[in-house]
Amino acid sequence: MDAVLAALVEPNRREILRLVHGEELPAGRIASHFDVSRPAISQHLKVLRDAGLIAERREGTRRLYRLRAEGFADVARFVEEFWDARLQQLKAEAERQEREKREQEGKTR
Amino acid sequence: MDAVLAALVEPNRREILRLVHGEELPAGRIASHFDVSRPAISQHLKVLRDAGLIAERREGTRRLYRLRAEGFADVARFVEEFWDARLQQLKAEAERQEREKREQEGKTR
DNA sequence: ACGTTATGTAAGTAATCACTTACATTCTGC
DNA sequence: GCAGAATGTAAGTGATTACTTACATAACGT
Fold this sequence. Notes:
Helix content of chain A: 55-70%
Mean pLDDT of chain A: 90
CATH class of the largest domain in chain A: Mainly Alpha
CATH superfamily of the largest domain in chain A: Winged helix-like DNA-binding domain superfamily/Winged helix DNA-binding domain
Structural class of chain A: alpha+beta
Low-confidence stretches of chain A: none
Order of helices and strands of chain A: HHEHHEEH
Shape of chain A: elongated
CATH architecture of the largest domain in chain A: Orthogonal Bundle
Number of strands of chain A: 3
Number of helices of chain A: 5
Radius of gyration of chain A: 22 Å
Number of domains of chain A: 2
Oligomer: homodimer
């Protein structure tokens, strides 16, 4: 998971993921969306591929990239470890307040 | 979100998050779980706090830390942008195969 | 007030990162 | 085979990172 998170830190790499999400794109097209040099994007693509976040397919001289959503599995589980817990706490808190409210009504009635 | 992802890259920081998940702990107790020096952990705590992933509460000379699950909101949404899409694709694929299967049965029968 | 405990901050350092320009590789169409 | 297009790789560089040791700050108990 280290490689995935490390890959996700860089904003341009996150933008690349959005670009190849749903649409397969050649390296050149991807690079043209950014201000940095083409080699810089090529290096970013390597980082993303090594992390398992994108897949590469060669077609003639071009290389087509697409999202590999499975690559997000580990980090998704990690985030849910904390984020879902929050939802459960919110739910528990809501239920607690509901219970208090009912008890209060019971007293006054 | 940059600060959150940057904070999550470092493995010791992720471990700190697990430690203060559900349990409020003083800085010293947290540091004692690791091999690196106490100042190193203090610096990690600062990074996590600045990123909004943990909350600090002072009690006398001690500082108690606890998880701030809300801090995961942005990154959770970001990951779901890709991870949920995968689930939807899996679902669509399953439905497509199901449809094919039914059509095949219709022919042979 | 004073020593002790708990903790953060400063300064320095080796390693890593994102970027650049220059060069290498690989495929295609003539 | 060769020119050109699409792309990756190498080498170098300034900025950032995670760590260390040394020092500063703040609250407590006596």
